[in-house]
Amino acid sequence: MNARDKQIATDLAYKIIRDVSRAIRPYVGKPESGEKIKMGADGTPTSLIDVIAEERIINILKNAPVLSYIISEEVGELKLGKGTQKNIVLTQELRRTDLDEEDTPKFIFLIDPVDGTNNAIKEIPAFGISIAIANVEQGRLSTLNDVELAFISSFANGNFFEAEKGKGCLLNNEEVHPSDVINISDMTLGGFTKSGTSQASKLVDNARRMRVLGSVVLELSYVASGRYDAFLDLRGSRIIDIAASKLILEEAGCIITNKYGQKLNNILSIYEKTIVVAANNKIMHKQIIDILNDNQTDFIGKVGVISRIDQKRPILFAAKVIDYLLTNGREVTIEKQLAKKLTELKENPNLENIIGKIKENYPEISHLLEDINMNIDFKQLAEPIKDFDCDMALILGGDGTLLRAQSRMKPEIPIFGINMGTVGFLTEIEATDTFEALDEILKGEYYKEKRTRLVVSHENNRFTAMNEVVIMTDKPAKMLHFEIKVDGEIIEEVRADGLIVSTPSGSTAYSMSAGGPIVDPKVEGFVIIPICPYKLGVRPFVVSDNSEITVKLLKKGKSAVFVMDGQINEEADYEEEIKFKKADKDAYFIRTSTKYFYEKVKDKLKEGGINSKPRCDDE
Fold first, then answer.
1. What's the pLDDT tens digit per position in 330-348?
2. Which of 399, 545, 565, 618 is the catalytic position?
3. Would residue 399 show up in a list of annotated catalytic residues for this protein?
């Protein structure tokens, strides 16, 4: 956006704010202003005062001398300007490459005409307008990072915030800065929490003051000006509510992210929402993120290292990681079998040739295999996995390696997975990103993600599983007959090749291949999936993880095998029951990646998760 375009956009924003302020003034404090006129484009009810404000905005942009896109709470997404008005889907419109210069809008306006509508209706002095203006680059989707201008005006007291990307933030034409508070006990916190969120309750309990004014855009701006020290919306804010506030906060020197501390770069759309956490500085922000994610370990002092041992590449890479950790002053313990393999390689006279072949086959990590220090007494650091007592378990391999390790470790030890397998859905990073990620972790810049585990009871035996339990016949091409109960109620009797009981973590594994749904790890439930059922209408069930699932074998003379995470096999006979409940202790993963769960789904599961260029094994 050049200087001339910025001036045009700014003039339009000023005119919108002036005209909307005048238009709604007679309606403030009037009960009839709250009359519900329709449902807005975002699915929320639209009041009379909202319609009046939005009609004024549309009229201004429709008659402007330039074309613009607009995203607004009530009307949705439009193309306006030069006397025209057209309904659009912005993401589709931006992908077009057939528009000439005359037909291409210059700006995207993201507007909340009246933020704090209920306050305006009841004449509570906390309502205003928010305008963010983003640049348009036809042929690609625009995101929050494309917002270049931001304006927020409080209709109640006249305060006016404005920011230009890279130029700082002004309040009533004077530069503003956030507070310098760094202790949560001294914090003034604003925002909206969510019922049943114990971490949020802990945050509120520790804050000095809590404010809830009912206007997301104004309260976020109060962090920029030092009136608040932090603000969060755990319900999920719409992009139109935070687009202007985000730029204002960042230009004032504040931090604004999602719940996991990841930068906000959502696509500009009426349907986009995100949880928001904003703070005056990095120190305050990190404390809030740690509490929200139930982070108990800030300092990683001792690391357990586990690796797949059927290939030399991950074994040698483990040596590099172990040396890095020791060099950085961390205590290290190594899985016994890995220590044995490392010692064998250390003593192998062909070690240089082995390293050379791996570097040739895997050029993307060849630079990471330079100067491997094998002069370490690996055996002295060895310990059985079950005896690991560390702050983090670092696992090199695919999902199978990770599940094997997790099943043998104390569940409270957080796991950090480095993918050296095929798909590695549960792992956090690829090998190429290892040392950058470890630098962040050792500085305490990470969060812990909680994952539900299953407890499986059969006869007098108990087992655990993090992904899934598969029940199948021990004879190929033979069917089993199952009775399935949830909390004692029979939900299905079915003949099938097998049955899967999956956690959300396992929903992207065998469960998905058998036709089950992909489940967000935050969902508190289990999935029951019959495998090739011989019955029309049988579909997977999603049940609460507070429920007890019971599976009974009904066919006399037929036994079954049930397998936990592909690791442990057990047998069950006719009329024996297998019970499934949520484990008392969850598993924990250390996360640093900016990828959301859904981005990882698209990334990992494309082309079946198989590398399109298979390479020679290093064995």
1. 999 999 999 999 999 999 9
2. 399
3. yes
